[in-house]
């Protein structure tokens, strides 16, 4: 995973610089999301790593699948990635790009995993508390994992806050063993 990030980072930075310069952050987000979805498809992945296809043929196959939804700059990115045998990095490039975009816009995506569905009031309170703690705008999404028993796990980038009953029981068991 770290190796993929290292390989993808220069491409993500270059795309981000291009998008910032042209004022096309959202357009590039859409293009990269489309490309990432296509590359993640199992059938397309087989085509993109097929040894008998040239880089141009692989790039053409990917751009054909995306149709006319890609702009010329995105098509050029696909060509460069194909030439360098890096097409499989597109999902990682897209993720890194979104991180750079969020930093610029001073936002953070937060995923709250809880045992039960959060009410709108709970979600709003949590979002406000996280906004104050992280000092940026928060985009909150929630997931349900009934195995947590109670409480919640909050993930905001590298920050993970485990307030679940399962997590607390695990910590207690670990402390008792030592």
Count of separate structural domains? 2
Summarize the amount of helix as a percent range: 55-70%
The overall strand count is 4
Overall CATH class of the largest domain: Mainly Alpha
What is the CATH T-level topology of the largest domain? Peroxidase, domain 1
Largest beta-sheet details: 4 strands, mixed
Mean pLDDT reading:
91
Strand content: 5-15%
* Helix-and-strand structural type: alpha+beta
The CATH architecture designation of the largest domain is: Orthogonal Bundle
Q: What is the name of the CATH superfamily of the largest domain? A: N-terminal domain of the delta subunit of the F1F0-ATP synthase
Main location: membrane
Family: Belongs to the ATPase delta chain family.
Pfam family, one: OSCP
Organism: Thalassolituus pacificus
Would you kindly provide a written description of the structure presented here, covering whatever features stand out?
With 178 residues, the chain is α+β, with helices and mostly antiparallel strands. It folds into two domains: 2-102, Peroxidase, domain 1 (Orthogonal Bundle), CATH 1.10.520.20; 107-177, no CATH class. 62% of the residues lie in helices and 14% in strands. The chain is built from eight helices and four strands. A four-stranded mixed sheet has the order 2-1-3-4, with helices on both faces. Helix 1 (2-22) packs antiparallel against helix 2 (25-40) and helix 2 packs antiparallel against helix 6. The longest helix has 21 residues, at 2-22. The two termini are 32 Å apart. The mean pLDDT is 91. Pfam families: OSCP. This is ATP synthase subunit delta. Belongs to the ATPase delta chain family. GO terms for molecular function: proton-transporting ATP synthase activity, rotational mechanism.
